[in-house]
Amino acid sequence: MAKQYDVLFRLLLIGDSGVGKTCLLCRFTDNEFHSSHISTIGVDFKMKTIEVDGIKVRIQIWDTAGQERYQTITKQYYRRAQGIFLVYDISSERSYQHIMKWVSDVDEYAPEGVQKILIGNKADEEQKRQVGREQGQQKGRLVLQLAREYGMDFYETSACTNLNIKESFTRLTELVLQAHRKELDGLRVRASNQLALAELEEEEGKPEGPVNSSKTCWC
């Protein structure tokens, strides 16, 4: 059976437990949001196909547990990622402060040239905001400065209201495509016109560690 996509990439969601990583994933892949959640155990993933610049991209999106006890497992997945979301909760200053630790993990474990986007999630909880958004605010400047320092785009998102969900996932996919443009251009001239960049069989996508099989939206 012919593949219904041209290229397959793996994206990774990392960040503290409770910042809403799985809610982002559920909203993007299934357009669902659940206000109640349980923490992800180990690693879980979902698939979605989108079209970017005329290319059908199958993205395998891995949702990792934020708890320290699972990080030995989740770090295995850094090495095979082409794109990574670093997620914090705008209502949790602590989760933002921990972004530096997550950046350090990416630098240590992810492949060179991996594409990154910084996400400030739960933007709908404005009344609980602890991390500023506007450039004129002190904390807001720190967020933008951090994103610039590490060459990351920055989005504030809300899985609850669907704010910037499609935009942020599409943007990271675009960045990965741009980073691999030479390989893509070379592969597209093949007689079969089948792109094989970052080829991953979906069976291979089965988690190597514990997986939460519940369909509830975990964070």
Distance between the termini: 35 Å
| CATH H level, superfamily name | P-loop containing nucleotide triphosphate hydrolases
How many helix segments? 7
Counting copies of identical and different chains, the oligomeric state is single chain
Question: What kind of sheet is the major sheet?
Answer: 6 strands, mixed
Q: Uncertain segments of ≥5 residues (pLDDT<50)?
A: 190-196, 212-219
User: CATH topology, anyone?
Assistant: Rossmann fold
Number of strands: 6
Determine the fraction of residues in helical runs and give it as a percent range.
25-40%
Number of domains: 1
CATH class: Alpha Beta
H and E order: EHEEHEHHEHEHH
User: Could you give the order of strands across the largest sheet?
Assistant: 2-3-1-4-5-6
Question: Roughly what is the average pLDDT, rounded to an integer?
Answer: 80
Structural class: alpha/beta
Q: What integer value in Å does the Rg equal?
A: 17 Å
* Gross CATH architecture: 3-Layer(aba) Sandwich
Shape assignment: globular
Structural account:
The chain is an alpha/beta fold. The protein has one domain (7-180): P-loop containing nucleotide triphosphate hydrolases (Rossmann fold, 3-Layer(aba) Sandwich), CATH 3.40.50.300. It has seven helices and six strands; from the N terminus they run βαββαβααβαβαα. It has helices at 21-30, 71-74, 93-97, 99-109, 138-149, 165-179, 181-188; strands at residues 7-15, 43-52, 55-64, 83-89, 115-121, 153-156. It has a six-stranded mixed sheet with strand order 2-3-1-4-5-6, sandwiched between helices. Strand 5, helix 5 (138-149) and strand 6 form a beta-alpha-beta unit. The protein is globular and about 50 Å long. The N and C termini lie far apart (35 Å).
